[in-house]
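Dear H.,

Thanks for agreeing to be a second pair of eyes. The structure we're designing against is below in token form, covering all 207 positions.
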């Protein structure tokens, strides 16, 4: 089973790393955060409350490919809603099969919060990618600013801390490193250094 599971908090560098690993290894890549973002977005668009299990579960069950291609999945508002819907067990259950089927076909690189602990607990290669809260907030602020948003760095840091706390403290599949995950702290590393470290760890695990 050529599954590479990459977990960790927001803006730690998971996405960039996952994309590069997938290209290097010739595997498809799934950003599982997009699934939760799309569910949160659907609830907001319908004027619903992301914390309402019935509404959020309905949105998760009726998710379509077009929902994942929307241009507004990266906004702070969508990010906050995604973290709220992600704490609802029925939402997670509705998205489970899709993630497992994606990887089961011929292997894959998946990134998220619970890939190595819940979605693919038997994955041979698991990474937990993290960085200091200050470094992550700065990266996300730069990313959002480059996209044209005018945001205060302090507000980005606060939003991220709230999301981290919710993602790590929920009962359903909380964010945490799997016992057999290789932890990579990217605070003082550039993307090339992270990639080199990760590729070495993944190759050792995949054989
Ligand atoms: O990776 P991201 O920042 O795009 O994820 C958005 C939210 O979705 C995140 O705050 C928590 C949730 N999420 C999750 O609970 N489990 C995953 N496997 C991926 C994301």
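And this is the sequence the design step returned. I haven't edited it by hand at all.
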């Amino acid at each position: 089973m050529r599954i590479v599971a990459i977990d960790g908090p927001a803006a730690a560098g998971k996405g960039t790393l996952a994309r590069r690993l997938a290209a290097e290894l010739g595997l498809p890549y799934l950003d599982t955060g997009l699934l939760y973002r799309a569910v949160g977005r659907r609830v907001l668009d319908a004027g619903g409350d992301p914390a309402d299990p019935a509404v959020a579960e309905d949105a998760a069950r009726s998710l379509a490919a077009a929902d994942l291609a929307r241009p507004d999945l990266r906004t702070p508002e969508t990010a906050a809603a995604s973290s709220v819907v992600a704490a609802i067990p029925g939402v997670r259950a509705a998205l489970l099969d899709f993630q497992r089927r994606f990887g089961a076909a011929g292997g894959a690189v998946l990134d998220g919060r619970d890939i190595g602990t819940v979605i693919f607990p038997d994955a041979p290669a698991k990474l937990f990618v993290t960085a200091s809260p200050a470094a992550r907030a700065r990266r996300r602020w730069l990313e959002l600013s480059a996209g044209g948003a005018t945001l205060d760095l302090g507000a980005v840091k606060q939003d991220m801390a709230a999301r981290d706390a919710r993602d790590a403290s929920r009962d359903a599949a909380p964010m945490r490193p799997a016992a057999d995950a290789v932890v990579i702290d990217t605070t003082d590393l550039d993307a090339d250094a992270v990639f080199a470290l990760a590729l070495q760890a993944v190759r050792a695990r995949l054989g």
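Two observations from my side: The pocket of 2'-deoxycytidine-5'-monophosphate is lined by residues 10, 32-33, 36-37, 79, 82-83, 86, 112-115, 163, 167 (CB under 6 Å). The chain has one domain: 3-206.

Warmly,
E.
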